[in-house]
């Protein structure tokens, strides 16, 4: 433990104490303050903020794509990488006051593998049972960091489940990925894993009069499935559409469960689409990039809240499209599944 300093966040007027050895974002999460973030690795810029007062701030390794040198000189910083060595005041640039204050403190947990299912050629359905503590509290749509045993490597995975005793994940396996190789090569039923969380702001905002647009690609299905399941459990009957993009039919999963959710969610439509249907594949659904499919269906989304999740290019393509269809930027919520391996 190092010396502690006060960090004040504006314009929300919240103050926390931050240990020099911890990043500001991590310390805020430990105190239940849910600040906007994505990768937590200095890669995505989601946590970018402005230093209003204080100079003695040092950053752990980060990508200059997320924080170019000229921005750093102007006073911008990345909260996921920032250690403070004096009292500072930070202006949050991207925040949702309701979410900040509704945060749950993160916990370190141990869980046991219940099952690892192969739901497509490169997607796995991992189910874990919590051992210590036996239950955690999270909001559907949030994610956990899972540690690769015997290393200091952690990877973030969004929860598709809605209760805090058994956690479900949908995980894409990358060739030579650190977690991927461990998941496919070593992990078996009964093994124990260390997890930390919950993290994330991909959670359903309370706005009963707003329609919902979900856009997910690949494993980005996971937190959206979590949100839909939770809506079904809670009887939330907001009008909702899930645009689910995959490359070929063999890349789709959980389709029958999602179709069946229509029975419990009267205002729900499901639009799966394939960007490159394989030759000879029987498919009578939509074809095209999921953003192009959405554009064909929607003309005015000014009254909607949108939730985007999946690979960064999909999220980045969907954001301007939704904005052009009228969705206010502050009502576009997203999780980019940035990968850390092999990047600067
Ligand atoms: C908020 C959040 C939520 C997420 N939720 C999910 C989820 O629900 N499901 C999911 O599947 N993923 C999710 N991710 C992504 C996940 O955390 C991992 O990044 C991803 O699974 C890859 O991890 P890995 O260790 O298998 O691969 P990594 O080792 O990180 O490698 C990733 C890719 O980089 C390549 N690579 C590795 N090293 C090099 C190198 N030296 N040079 C070039 N290329 C290299 C690998 O081959 C692979 O293609 C989420 C990410 C974030 C930020
Ligand atoms: S750069 Fe800080 S969360 Fe991604």
From TrEMBL:
It holds the Pfam family NAD_binding_1. Keywords: 2Fe-2S, FAD, Flavoprotein, Iron, Iron-sulfur, Metal-binding, Monooxygenase, Oxidoreductase, Transport. The keyword S-adenosyl-L-methionine does not apply. CDD domains: fer2. InterPro entries: 2Fe-2S_ferredoxin-like_sf, 2Fe-2S_ferredoxin-type, 2Fe2S_fd_BS, Beta-grasp_dom_sf, Cbr1-like_FAD-bd_dom, FAD-bd_FR_type, Flavoprot_Pyr_Nucl_cyt_Rdtase, FNR_nucleotide-bd. Residues 5-96 form the 2Fe-2S ferredoxin-type domain. It comes from the Bacteria. One of its GO terms (molecular function) is 2 iron, 2 sulfur cluster binding. Residues 106-205 form the FAD-binding FR-type domain. PANTHER family: NA(+)-TRANSLOCATING NADH-QUINONE REDUCTASE SUBUNIT, NAD(P)H-FLAVIN REDUCTASE. This is Propane monooxygenase reductase subunit. It comes from Paractinoplanes atraurantiacus.
